[in-house]
Design brief:
- There is one protein chain.
- The chain is of the alpha/beta class.
- It has 2 domains: about 220 residues, Spore Coat Polysaccharide Biosynthesis Protein SpsA, Chain A, CATH 3.90.550; about 190 residues, 3 Solenoid (UDP N-Acetylglucosamine Acyltransferase, domain 1), CATH 2.160.10.
- It contains 8 helices and 35 strands.
- Strand 4, helix 2 and strand 5 form a beta-alpha-beta unit.
- The structure holds uridine-diphosphate-N-acetylglucosamine and calcium ion.
């Protein structure tokens, strides 16, 4: 049966103590709602409808261009009311899955279990066993195990409250049954809300089969209402990512101290030291080693390369057997060929570094093309910006740049050139020659150091 997914995301989230809508708060580099949408997309549904209310324009804006439908729920009159707003948009004949923008860790596997278990039931609830069921709707089962009702905390009797099995809120219902039942929801309860959970008793009244399956891991269905819960969910997310890496054979020096905020793809025998953050899509080849406290985003690093501690790498392509850092800042558009080396306190941007070339210490290299087997001395600066435009520096194969040199772009240092230390190079240099610009050293014979006046 084709699937429609409704994601409830209209709530305000007052307890977040934030000006931003709750569901767009970030969890591991993307919004909570984006996590739920990504999980939804993986199920290949016919349609995804997001119910928005509080700060709806902000929420829509953050989710645009993903083929989602949005439904406005101007006033939040309950979860049943929220789903009701979607009826017009719902494609006829589909099964309907209800998810929540503030329950971001729900897994594809659990939803697949729910879809599987739903066969033969008109309505299927995902339940769980929380450590403390206070505040949750309780699942009331008949002797044969079928579900009779969900009783909300506010309406629960003392006996109901003893039931541990609780409602996650996530449910699956046949579209035709949803249309049959939802108009009959009433708000004659303590909260004066239209409860989605009342679908259960309406279904039972109509003689329809209602079932519930347990979510094996209660941590998947934790909702986020405040910053504490968001931090807990973030920590759980971190554990899940670390455990996936360990399963793939990565050596993590401490699985509790790695943040994967995106997609980290790894070869074999990769090692990652503590406190590293990976953002966007990062690919690490076989035997790559990452030192402590590195931040790496949207970057590919080929086999046998090493990134030493405190290094930041953003949108770079790193070859094999490359060494970077410690304390390097590799900015977008940096490409390091095999066997090249970038050392401490070096910043690069829009720069290609040829095979075997070295920029070992204290340099800024921007908008530069460096050939093979080049040595860039300590303290070399490419002066690529004249205040208005950026200009390129070209350093050909086999060049040796002496320390403390400024290369004023646009400039080309021809093959095999040697640049004397301390030079300011403003014109292209000829191949295989020594070029330097340096005032002559003099000695003043008659000079005397000033003495004391006393
Ligand atoms: C709901 C369930 C309860 C379950 C619990 C799990 C109902 C009546 N109760 O209770 O059985 O144990 O979740 O956490 O469904 N929302 C809207 N529009 C509305 C109302 C809510 O979009 O008009 C969204 C909220 O933003 C929130 C979610 O739906 O993300 C759940 O609503 P909430 O009011 O928090 O329900 P609970 O009382 O927690
Ligand atoms: Ca809630």
């Amino acid at each position: 049966m084709p699937l429609s997914i409704i994601i409830l995301a209209a709530g305000q989230g007052k307890r977040m103590q934030s000006a931003r809508a709750k569901v767009i708060h970030q969890l591991a580099g993307k919004s909570m709602l984006q996590h739920v949408v990504d999980t939804s997309q993986a199920l290949d549904p016919d349609q995804i409808i997001v119910v928005v209310g509080h700060q709806s324009s902000q929420v829509r804006e953050s989710m645009k261009g993903q083929g989602l439908s949005f439904v406005e729920q101007a006033e939040q009159k309950g979860t049943g009311h929220a789903v009701q707003q979607c009826l017009k948009q719902l494609n006829e004949g589909n099964d309907v899955l209800v998810l929540y923008g503030d329950v971001p860790l729900i897994s594809i596997a659990t939803i697949r279990n729910l879809l599987e278990a739903a066969k033969g039931s008109a309505l299927n609830i995902l339940s769980f066993l929380p450590e403390n069921s206070q505040g949750y709707g309780r699942i009331i089962r008949a002797a044969d195990g079928s579900v009779r009702a969900i009783v909300e905390e506010k309406e629960a009797t003392a006996d109901d409250k003893k039931i541990q099995e609780s409602n996650t809120g996530i449910l699956l219902i046949e579209g035709s049954k949803l249309r049959q039942l939802i108009g009959r929801l009433e708000n004659n309860n303590v909260k004066k809300e239209y409860y989605l959970t009342d679908l259960v008793k309406l279904a039972v009244q109509d003689g329809l089969k209602v079932s519930a399956i347990l979510c094996a891991d209660a941590r998947e269905v934790n909702g986020v209402n405040d910053q504490h819960q968001l931090a807990e969910v973030e920590s759980r997310y971190r554990q899940i990512q670390a455990s996936l890496l360990l399963k793939q054979g990565v050596k993590l020096y401490d699985p509790a101290r790695i943040d994967v905020r995106g997609d980290l793809q790894v070869g074999s025998d990769v090692e990652i030291d503590i406190n590293c953050i990976f953002e966007g899509t990062v690919k690490l080849g076989d035997r790559v080693r990452i030192g402590a406290n590195c931040v790496i985003r949207d970057t590919t690093i080929a086999a046998d390369s090493v990134v030493l501690p405190m290094t930041s790498i953003d949108q770079a392509v790193i070859g094999s057997q490359v060494s970077i850092g410690p304390f390097a800042r590799i900015r977008p558009g940096t490409e390091c060929a095999d066997g090249s080396k970038i050392g401490n306190f070096v910043e690069t941007k829009k720069t290609t570094i040829g095979a075997g070339s070295k920029v070992n210490h204290l340099s800024y290299i921007g908008d530069t093309q460096i050939g093979r087997e080049v040595n860039i001395g300590a303290g070399t600066i490419t002066c690529n910006y004249d205040g208005v435009n950026k200009h390129r520096t070209i350093i050909e194969d086999g060049v040796f740049i002496g320390s403390d040199t400024q290369l004023v772009a646009p400039v080309t240092i021809a093959e095999g050139s040697t640049i004397g230390a301390g030079s300011t190079i403003t014109r292209d240099t000829p191949a295989q020659k020594l070029s330097l610009s340096r005032s002559r050293q003099i000695t003043i014979d008659a000079w005397k150091r000033p003495g004391s006046n006393k």
